[in-house]
Amino acid sequence: MTGLALFAHQFRYDQKVFWRNPASVFFTVAFPTILLLIFATVFGGQTVDVRGGIDTTAYYVPAIITLSVISATMQSLAMSLVIAREDGRLKRGRGTPMPAWVFISGRVGNSGVVALLMLALIAAIGRVFYGVAIPWERLPQIVFILLIGAASFCCLGIALTAAIPSQDAAAPIVNALLLPLYFLSGVFIPDDQLPSGVIHFADAFPIRHFFEAFFAIYDPGNAGATIEWGNLAVVAAWGIVGLFLAIRYFRWTPRGG
Amino acid sequence: MPDPVISIRGLRKSYGDFEAVRGIDLEVRAGEVFAFLGPNGAGKTTTVEILEGYRKRSGGEVSVLGEDPEHADRAWREQIGIVLQSCRLDPYLTVRESLELYAGYYSAPRSVAETIELVGLAGKADARTGGLSGGQQRRLDVGMALVGDPELLFLDEPTTGFDPSARRQAWETIAGLRDLGKTVFLTTHYMDEAQRLADRVTILARGQIVAAGTPDDLGDRESLPTTISYRLDGEQLSVETTTPVADLHELTGRAVAQGLELEGLEVTRPSLEDVYLSLTGEGSTE
């Protein structure tokens, strides 16, 4: 088979496994959707004092899309790869003629597709239930930023597996990293409620920059929005560091037992 | 004679100061079922993982299907099938899907339907693997190693931890591989498994080969001492002897002369299990 056919083959089975696994569907699809509904219900109708004043729902739609992308990529990959590694499936796969890149690209492709689906889902919920306009005219830029973010957070997720010693440790480690950063980066708590020190701290990490870049392009009130290359560059730089760490430290064989 | 499928000369492997494999020589010929028998920690898995290309050796020469596994390429991987000692299959795929996934990795795979038949899972083809019994999962595991239609199969302790019926099922599947003309390299710590399945057995203990042969002539069983045991005045006595006929004659002669009955009198030749235990210096296999 050609490389593309091998990738398509692997991707097809990775999709089946993803959608049949209740944990992966809950954390990447249901959880962000529920968060959006809760935030919009609790804080709806208020104004967030950023970008000259914006409705909370218009704030939370891009915020939750940001979270969904990170969830579909970094979180989902780190968890599923550690589980497969400790089960011996990665090692078993390495014993076949399948090249390593096919295996990894199948998983990354799966994450990318789920991230795009979540963009569509959250944008649609925002539009239908809360009247948050979808900036269709900037769709190419929106997808471009999303894919740069997805690729970067995929690299970080694969790199993170090297720091996770066991299946049981996967969820605590991933959540201990991501949950505080969602709060501190303005994903859960709007920017105007956060002390500037917190935002400076969050600026050291990629989540804040990805959110900023995505929010700027998605903000329906920001008619002349262009891509915030500075923020995007920080995200991509983190991704490149993740890529090198992943190449250096990723392992196919179980660490336990 | 054709070239051996596997050839090992002076194989060594150290982890730090610990020498797990201390100079092994062996050959495996095409079409045979070769058992590598030894207790836990003898170095079996280390050796088989060197042969599979998972580990680098510290010394010696290794050739598998004419290539050094350390520098193996995709074409080489097309020719081998691997069943790891422990591997949990993807619980969200069915039996058929698991085999289709692996078949897609090979350029000339065996038919999936035929493979399902071969490992006896026809009734379970559309069941998720998460719902299979341990024995069924292991047979699927063997099927996934077979679906690429390899020349050589590695099975690392394929029945460890199985109940007797699951072991029997797995044995039937493995015995069937011989009929396909595959070469099988099997590691096990069960003497009866090696005896039942293998054409040739090599026993490994503490990183060295201690015996090699067919299951019947292994370990020079004929020359090992025979045990004569009996009870006298309620006390259990036993004697090990290399001249059982003479010793038995003397013992029974004295007993008859003194009018004693030797209760529970037994003469036992060493079993293969005994040979194995004495060779590996193990008190028990498990």
Task: Describe the protein in words.
- The complex is a heterodimer of chains A (257) and B (286).
- Chain A is mainly alpha-helical and 257 residues long.
- Helices cover 74% and strands 2% of the residues of chain A.
- Chain A is built from ten helices and two strands; from the N terminus they run ααββαααααααα.
- Chain A has helices spanning 3-20, 22-43, 56-87, 89-94, 100-130, 139-160, 167-184, 196-202, 206-218, 229-249; strands spanning 47-48, 54-55.
- Chain A has a two-stranded antiparallel sheet with strand order 1-2.
- Chain B has 286 residues and is α/β, with parallel strands linked by helices.
- In chain B, the strands form three sheets. A six-stranded mixed beta sheet of chain B has the order 5-6-7-3-8-9, with helices on both faces. Chain B has a three-stranded antiparallel beta sheet with strand order 2-1-4, covered by helices on one side. A three-stranded antiparallel beta sheet of chain B has the order 11-10-12.
- In chain B, strand 8 and strand 9 form a beta hairpin.
- In chain B, helix 3 crosses helix 4, helix 3 packs parallel to helix 5 and helix 5 (134-146) runs parallel beside helix 6 (164-179).
- The two termini of chain B are 39 Å apart.
- Classes of the chains: A mainly alpha (257), B alpha/beta (286).
